[in-house]
Amino acid sequence: MKKNEVPQDDSPLKRKNINEMVYAVDDDGKFVSVQSSGWEAKTVVQHENLEVLDQRIQQALNDVKAGNVSPIVYFMELKRMDWQTLAGYVDKWTFFVKRHAKPNVFKNLNTKTLQKYADVFGISLTDLQNFKG
């Protein structure tokens, strides 16, 4: 793509006054970095991804309310983490983090473990313990 052909479409980035760097070919045929405020195809994909993430958050909230999972699942989705990422942050094996997602296991976790989760999620221990959805 040539330097003057780099898309400058309306996007969530443009609305936040953020540009991303892309590479293009200048008039001399050399690669140069160029700022782009958006690209329609990329914007469509970003919106679809955000919709999927919002659906996952809503499903996790519904599952917490129904008593199927612990609040850990909701906050993990809200913070856009997966099991392995969360396990790394709380310094536990993924197996244990998945166990902690079970309501009957969660309610028996000690304060130290719950505080690790609360710190990772950026919430208070009380908010984590008392979260009902």
Describe the fold and architecture.
It comes from Paenimyroides ummariense. This is HTH cro/C1-type domain-containing protein. The chain has 133 residues and is mainly alpha-helical. The chain has two domains: 36 residues, no CATH class; 86 residues, Orthogonal Bundle (434 Repressor (Amino-terminal Domain)), CATH 1.10.260. 56% of the residues lie in helices and 9% in strands. The chain contains eight helices and two strands. A two-stranded antiparallel ribbon has the order 1-2. Strand 1 and strand 2 form a beta hairpin. The mean pLDDT is 91.
Can I get a quick summary?
By secondary structure, this protein is mainly alpha-helical. The protein contains 8 helices and 2 strands; from the N terminus they run αββααααααα. Strand 1 and strand 2 form a beta hairpin.
Features:
133 residues; mainly alpha; 434 Repressor (Amino-terminal Domain); 2 domains; two-stranded antiparallel sheet; 8 helices; 2 strands; elongated
Shape: elongated
Name of the level-1 CATH class of the largest domain: Mainly Alpha
Spatial sequence of strands, sheet with the most strands? 1-2
Largest sheet: 2 strands, antiparallel
Number of domains: 2
What series of H and E elements makes up the topology?
A: HEEHHHHHHH
Give the termini separation. 48 Å
What is the name of the CATH architecture of the largest domain?
Orthogonal Bundle
Strand percentage: 5-15%
* CATH structural fold name of the largest domain: 434 Repressor (Amino-terminal Domain)
Helix content: 55-70%
Contiguous uncertain segments of 5+ residues: none
Based on helices, strands and strand pairing, what is the structural class? mainly alpha
Organism: Paenimyroides ummariense
Protein name: HTH cro/C1-type domain-containing protein
